[in-house]
Amino acid sequence: MQSKKIKVGIVGGTGYTGVELLRLLAQHPDVELSVITSRGEAGLPVADMFPSLRGRVSLVFTDPSQADLTLCDVVFFATPHGVAMSQAQALVAAGVKVIDLAADFRLQDITVFEKWYKLPHSCPDILANAVYGLPELYREQVRSAQVIGNPGCYPTTVLLGLAPLLEQGLVDLSIPIVSDSKSGVSGAGRKAEVATLFAEASDNMKAYGVSGHRHHPEIQEQLRQLSGVAPQFIFVPHLIPMIRGMLSTMYVKLTPEGLKTDIQALYETRYQREPFVDVLPPGSLPETRTVRGGNHLRLALYPQAETGYLTIIVVQDNLVKGAAGQAVQNMNIMFDLDERTGLEVVPLLP
Amino acid sequence: MQSKKIKVGIVGGTGYTGVELLRLLAQHPDVELSVITSRGEAGLPVADMFPSLRGRVSLVFTDPSQADLTLCDVVFFATPHGVAMSQAQALVAAGVKVIDLAADFRLQDITVFEKWYKLPHSCPDILANAVYGLPELYREQVRSAQVIGNPGCYPTTVLLGLAPLLEQGLVDLSIPIVSDSKSGVSGAGRKAEVATLFAEASDNMKAYGVSGHRHHPEIQEQLRQLSGVAPQFIFVPHLIPMIRGMLSTMYVKLTPEGLKTDIQALYETRYQREPFVDVLPPGSLPETRTVRGGNHLRLALYPQAETGYLTIIVVQDNLVKGAAGQAVQNMNIMFDLDERTGLEVVPLLP
Amino acid sequence: MQSKKIKVGIVGGTGYTGVELLRLLAQHPDVELSVITSRGEAGLPVADMFPSLRGRVSLVFTDPSQADLTLCDVVFFATPHGVAMSQAQALVAAGVKVIDLAADFRLQDITVFEKWYKLPHSCPDILANAVYGLPELYREQVRSAQVIGNPGCYPTTVLLGLAPLLEQGLVDLSIPIVSDSKSGVSGAGRKAEVATLFAEASDNMKAYGVSGHRHHPEIQEQLRQLSGVAPQFIFVPHLIPMIRGMLSTMYVKLTPEGLKTDIQALYETRYQREPFVDVLPPGSLPETRTVRGGNHLRLALYPQAETGYLTIIVVQDNLVKGAAGQAVQNMNIMFDLDERTGLEVVPLLP
Amino acid sequence: MQSKKIKVGIVGGTGYTGVELLRLLAQHPDVELSVITSRGEAGLPVADMFPSLRGRVSLVFTDPSQADLTLCDVVFFATPHGVAMSQAQALVAAGVKVIDLAADFRLQDITVFEKWYKLPHSCPDILANAVYGLPELYREQVRSAQVIGNPGCYPTTVLLGLAPLLEQGLVDLSIPIVSDSKSGVSGAGRKAEVATLFAEASDNMKAYGVSGHRHHPEIQEQLRQLSGVAPQFIFVPHLIPMIRGMLSTMYVKLTPEGLKTDIQALYETRYQREPFVDVLPPGSLPETRTVRGGNHLRLALYPQAETGYLTIIVVQDNLVKGAAGQAVQNMNIMFDLDERTGLEVVPLLP
């Protein structure tokens, strides 16, 4: 446990992952919010933009050019892709830890990064040492990391949903793994766009990114890590008329060995010491609202006896375990705090 | 009944009143959709933007500079304020009827118009002959009008909710009339704005325009017409997380004469021949969904015995009776059709 | 075209499929609504329960014991499973046509029916002659049918989404077909239940029926018809916070022949004369709101080059093409009307 | 500060106020959840009914007949009206404090209680000593109370919205006070009812209780306390398609003295030491989501210069400050804890 507070900086706090970081960090006992930058909103008190923070956050947005982030212990980037990598070098040089909630440090394969994000990567050496911040898979690496690529929301559900099987080699990889995923609209961010207006997105649903979504290569790179091969993977995300919440329904064919395994026990054992992964009892039907505002990911398992398939359903709050909560979890690990610190908010139901 | 079809032009068909006009006119037996203009979308088939119209509307958006609107019998303006008045002169000169769904021809008092809309009025002579298109109050004038200022959505609910009382002088005008009004989010239009994003407007509500809303002077001008004096009027609109629907709750103090009157009978008599005004039985609680997609306005009356007040609740679909449906109703009157033609769609419930 | 109107009876008009039938039939030019029964609501005007029908439907609910349904030309059953089969014998004997919107006449295999619906089938002889009312597959049989089992909502999306492939033998049936389906909450009916309360189902989603849903055997029986074999089929339905709307995302492996086929052209050709099936252009992303209130089913196709799979996305309004609209479409065919009569309502968007 | 934890019992924990109490108390550092009763669910782990509490609440529902509530320090009743008064006598005799979230101890006038709740009051002597648990008005009485009648949700907004004016006599009481109030659907409770189904209440709104709502007499009794007279009061509640959230828009006529007063300063001064009342800066538009899940009530003031009226808008979370949060606030006061203990959850936005 720390004796003094962690000085935290946030770059880009006007989006949904930004305000979510503020919500969680404002309740974190070991954190001092030092600086938050925004080019467009410099001078505005944060609580004027997000009145939910009135009385809890007294920071004012600072112009990036005026902010000395090297005085922080850790800086979170809640920015579009490309921002974190442009500032990482200076921060790393100053000994500041970096947690990027965008994609700059998620993909180790630079060619893939540049293809999907249409940006040259400006600091491949830092990337090479960056850690993919999924604590349930890489806790030890996170502990000593200087730079974290915080996972995408969809990848978190898919990877934690599949890891116990892939680690044991129980999936028949001659058949594609399918993840049919569904996200609340906050996942699209706080950008003014017609497609996510209330009158467009409410009482309506659709698939999107069917021919290619940026989380596809991220998931594939990690599936390769987990399985040792490059599995075929079909990924279809859908936009659902709810603010928060993400649910992935995965369909995998088990190997003969997998068919003989007690899958429920396997998952329970694998995750028994994980504070934020909850394996539900057999027959449960996970609902997204059971994690609304909380950092838990809950999952359930349904063997399909007739086909030899396993259906796996995973839920999380896309803004918490899928973004800001996971980032705080990573910070806790990096600063040797109890991993749950500041993250024990009970989900809001109803 | 016409032997040949009415040639209709629409200026600005990419917003919600535009697509709603298209929905209604596509089902109208006496209309031929001739042209629809859009600067930004020229060349795009309308049904590509609004796939609900696939197979029903084959028009392509035309650049305004390429469209000869003078070949139409009537032109609807589903545009921002200021567009209709810039084109009205030429259309009127060519004998084309004009129905403006924005505010250019709603307010007879030009000073008030210019104060609230921050625009000089470019054709005061046409305005002087324009008719406020609320058929239940001005049907005869609509019949012979060349230019219609189609009423605002809130004013339609307030004026039809109060007309029977004001026409009979039954309201104590020494006390302000209060209208606490609520609108679905489509009323804010199809503009990309943060405030009306799903993740902002859903599971949330707020008042807006409390210190002044453009429908306030419009309502006041009409209240003056109805009552012969300028009544005090307090108007607070609210944004409600539903796509369509508008509900106004009005609070008025009755005169001693009003207190002796059978108000229910008064309203039923006043509106008995109106095809689109439905006075509900005593004790009813109007729901917005009972008019979803339909051109009806439904209302109910609640005398407050202890206070001598009357509470009036009015519902409509803001995009139909509050905008596009009323515009088509006006067109039907202007072209001597049965007023209900093309407007007999049964509301969608649930 | 008929010279006189079709006399229609509805048994059980207090649920969502009932009010939806009323909405459509009230706008149908060749129909006379003769009688609607309800045990619980006898004596109540239908429009008192559903004020959206005020001025359009003047029927009063009749107690079943007082209603002589044999005077009708056709009777729709919008009732729980088991009701239609208890009355079908008498109606058939009287020459009345029957369209059951529940499951009594959907499954030809009585053993399967009795297993899933926990009811003995009371008129297997009538079932043997009943027709599965999916016009796009069985139009000729519908034309001469006396009794129609109107398809379930999910099966309509799955079967029309797969038919062109299965008819041509282009699916590799050694691999299970997966349908990940999503439904609006109205699909659960108008029963008072905690799980579908607004405060439970809003801003939330979940899967249900993962271990077995009644539409599974219905789909499997029809897949067998289409393919000649009994394909493996995995079906996971989900509950989505929208009133209406259904979207099925299907994942199938193509045969080598299928991989060489122009799938888009295959579907366009197969459905080119179908008034209610709309094959969207390549790259389209179907939204449920584009069919809200309309009888269209729209679909799009996404070949997954790397895996040899095809993803198929289908949308419909679960209460229209998925229930009442399809029932009216069947009626139109049975009475030799233009199939589109009364069903040309333009969907409500937004 | 206590050295040992407060033993808490909850009677009736299966509704929304019950689960909300559990959410808040599970995060309260000075509370030990001892027992929760439910007749219908005895034996069921609470977290099986509400999986959001998994890992946080290990209690199992106990049958009321098996629960010895006299071992508790305080018992919360989250039950229908009539339950608390049937058990209060025994608990009070045993020295247990009682906080009733229903109406049994809200109205001092028994005649009014019996008229509106259709129940004889079974313990008028306890009622006479019960305190109306609105801390901002009755903090000292709460401190020493044995039995608390926790205020209704609507009354909390109306009374805190009006108190500063009425305490100073600045409202012209010859004119009725109007409160046009709006509530999210969770206010209707977790009962299986058709009217609050998702498919009924979503994308829809309505007024209800226009001719009489049980919160009307409760508000009037308190207005009398505040003003010394019995002001006329018009109250119209509305049902809004959101889960949580309440907004009251109030219209009052100011006295000449009131018109000369700096109303903003008056409210800021009145509430400056209140931890849970937030007077927003002039021109603010309170949104319900800014208090979602939090115990704050926020308000804004709009003088209507032309009419001499003041419009007051108040928002709260109906389940927190309007119910369970306020109950915990009362408990904190009764047990001499910092009033904010366990209530510092930052609201969930978006």
TrEMBL record, chains A, B, C, D:
Keywords: Amino-acid biosynthesis, Arginine biosynthesis, Cytoplasm, NADP, Oxidoreductase. It is found in: Cytoplasm. The keyword Transmembrane does not apply. The keyword Metal-binding does not apply. Residues 7-145 form the Semialdehyde dehydrogenase NAD-binding domain. Its main location: cytoplasm. It comes from Methylobacillus rhizosphaerae. HAMAP family: ArgC_type1 (MF_00150). This is N-acetyl-gamma-glutamyl-phosphate reductase. Pathway: Amino-acid biosynthesis; L-arginine biosynthesis; N(2)-acetyl-L-ornithine from L-glutamate: step 3/4. GO terms for molecular function: N-acetyl-gamma-glutamyl-phosphate reductase activity; NAD binding; NADP+ binding. Signal peptide: none annotated. Catalyzes the NADPH-dependent reduction of N-acetyl-5-glutamyl phosphate to yield N-acetyl-L-glutamate 5-semialdehyde.
